Amino acid sequence: MTRITLTTALALSLSACMTAPVPATGGRLPSSAATCDAGPVAWAVGKPASADIVERVRIDSHSRTVRMLRPGQMITMEFSAERVDIRVDGANVILAVSCG
Q1: How far apart are alpha carbons 89 and 80 in whole angstroms?
Q2: Pick from 61, 73, 70, 75: which is nearest to 90 by CA?
Q3: 73 vs 67: CA distance, rounded Å
Q4: Binning pLDDT at 50, 70 and 90, where does residue 34 land?
Q5: Which residue did the predictor score with more confidence, 14 or 64?
Q6: Which three-class secondary structure state does DSSP give residue 36?
Q7: Of the N and C termini of the chain, which has fewer Cβ atoms inside 10 Å?
Q8: Are the C-beta atoms of 71 and 89 separated by less than 8 Å?
Q9: If phi over 0 gives left and psi between -120 and 50 gives alpha, with beta otherwise, what is residue 23?
Q10: How far apart are CA 73 and CA 57, in angstroms?
Q11: Alpha carbon distance 50, 34 (integer Å)
Q12: For residue 39, what are the CA distances in angstroms to 50, 62, 63, 68?
């Protein structure tokens, strides 16, 4: 019959809890190709939020998705770097464009 000493059992149980060290990357992670940039879409403010304009805003801002924000609409507060937000008024005219 095999006997395990208390020291061996303790060493084995503690080693199971250890994690491998996280390797250093040496720099920042590469940026996503779909990271939103609202600067190039300032031209959209004041224009009607038609399907064509909204799609052009998405493309020009390098975003993957668009979120329309209407007056009184409840929205979630999570941030997405791949999304452009278009805030419109009651007449569907673009008031502001931002990332998030």
Answers
A1: 23
A2: 70
A3: 11
A4: confident
A5: 64
A6: coil
A7: N
A8: yes
A9: beta
A10: 21
A11: 22
A12: 20, 11, 12, 18
User: What are 54-61's contacts with CB under 8 Å, separation 24+?
Assistant: 54/86, 57/84, 57/86, 57/97, 58/84, 61/36, 61/37, 61/97, 61/99
The mean pLDDT of the chain is 82
Helix/strand/coil for 57: helix
For residue 62, what are its two tokens?
A: 């390098």
| Residue 62 contacts residue 34 (beta carbons within 8 Å) | yes
CA distances from 77 to 85, 95, 97 (A): 12, 19, 16
| Spatial contact of 79 and 71, defined as CB atoms under 8 Å apart | no
Cα 88 from Cα 70, distance rounded (Å): 5
